[in-house]
Design a protein that fits this description.
418 residues; alpha/beta; 17 helices; 40% helix
């Protein structure tokens, strides 16, 4: 019998994608079903040692949904909100927790939880015994960081949640989790202080560099129906407040004053989209900003179409207020698109690995405008160290690093498989 690895995403997609619905075709879901799904698919290509299952929670579900594809079992469990609209305490999936306790008793298993500071992750660390637990950290930051980074008008609504994370979640995870995988150096430093450096490793998310590669700009624009003579600024992101897209929109008037043939392409979906559309109208630049997909079109742009957008653009901007890594920046530079990103958390690692790109302060529309104008007026061919970045961010290498951690933990708990 194979050893089992359960990769569980412990937050609902619908918490930031209002139109999200569970589908039987996993790869048609936003982000390919989640980073835990993409990781499992890559691990399956690299080793046959493990029986892989991907579990997710979703607060819109009333009962469990199960599907299977390429020998990976996918299970979606209902989740329940905790707290109220004013006092947000998160969500938890009791069905997932009950089923997990049953499954880990059937065979040698490892639980790989995705997101640290959630009720489902923390309760798993409390209830699951004698089983290796690995946590992949994304937007997981300390109590003080979370509090200060929340917009002031809603900051105190989340105070109870921050207190839980600071005084309960951290302590529970510290006692039980075997290894924390993080995406950037600031998070590595934080978790190392919390649990010790030996239990923390940097392991980025990955992309397929054979897919994200340069396409002729004229061909890409022709395929997308874009004007070959215009300048295009591109951002691909979930339309949520922390992505800083309103600062990018506010940067457009000075850009248009200098370069009137410039247009902004915003690819993505999310609860903040209506706010961004109203902002564009307020600034009277709605004709120069294209929200993709449009409201009456498909719900999302397929992943296989993204290289066309990256290649068609003259510059890519990632204006995030917080960003654990910024995979879209990796995709953009892999396609040879000039990159501008905010100097927050994981984004500097993109510039470091590609040895290219421009870092600017967050929440600064003037800095965005100045940098975009410089890139567009310069017009020089973008030069990046693609080989170095591929060695660090390619999915095959990311999967191998995770497999190495799995192997060590299985051998520690259950003995060598050899």
């Amino acid at each position: 019998m194979k050893e089992k690895v359960i990769l569980a995403n412990t937050h609902s997609f619908s918490s930031f994608l209002p139109e999200f619905q569970v589908k039987e075709e996993i790869n048609e879901l936003p982000y390919g079903g989640g980073w835990h799904v993409r990781l499992a698919q890559q691990i399956a290509k690299s080793t046959d040692r493990y029986d892989l299952e991907c579990w997710s929670i979703e607060n819109r579900l009333e009962k469990e949904f199960v599907t299977k594809d390429d020998d990976i079992l996918y299970r979606f469990f209902p989740a329940q909100r905790i707290g109220s609209h004013r006092i947000n305490l998160g969500e938890v999936s009791w069905p997932l927790l009950r089923e997990l306790r049953v499954e880990v008793k059937k065979q040698n298993s490892l639980v790989h939880l995705h997101s640290a500071f959630t009720w489902t992750t923390v309760l798993t660390s409390i209830f699951i015994k004698k089983t290796p637990i690995l946590v992949q950290c994304y937007e997981d930051r300390s109590l003080l960081q979370l509090f200060l980074e929340t917009p002031e008008r809603t900051r105190y609504n989340y105070l109870a949640s921050y207190l839980l994370k600071g005084f309960f979640f951290e302590r529970a995870l510290k006692r039980r989790v075997d290894c924390f995988l993080v995406l950037n150096k600031p998070t590595e430093k934080y978790f190392s202080r919390l649990v010790g450096a030996k239990r923390v490793q940097i392991s980025p998310m990955g992309i397929d560099f054979s897919v994200y590669t340069r396409i002729d700009k004229n061909r890409a624009r022709d395929d997308l129906g874009l004007d070959p003579n215009k300048k295009y600024v591109l951002s691909v992101a979930a339309m949520v407040e922390r992505k800083g897209l309103d600062y990018l929109i506010r940067s457009m008037p000075p850009i248009l004053e200098r370069l009137p043939d410039t247009e902004l392409l915003l690819v993505g979906e999310g609860y903040y989209k209506k706010h961004l559309q109203l902002l564009a109208q307020k600034l009277r630049i709605q004709d120069e900003i294209h929200f993709i997909p449009a409201g009456d079109a498909e719900l999302r742009v397929p992943d296989e179409k993204l290289p066309l957008y990256y290649s068609a653009a003259d510059v890519f901007v990632l204006p995030s207020l917080t960003e654990a890594l910024g995979v879209v920046g990796i995709e953009a530079m892999a396609c040879g698109t000039p990159f501008i990103g905010t100097n927050v958390e994981g984004i500097p690692s993109l510039v470091e690995q590609f040895e290219a790109g421009v870092l600017i302060p967050p929440r600064d529309s003037n800095a965005i405008a100045s940098s975009v104008i410089n890139v567009l007026e310069d017009g020089a061919m973008f030069s990046a160290n693609r080989a170095r970045a591929k060695n660090y961010f390619d999915w095959h290498n990311v999967a191998k690093k995770n497999i190495d951690v799995y192997d060590v933990l299985f051998d520690r708990y259950y003995g060598s498989s050899e």
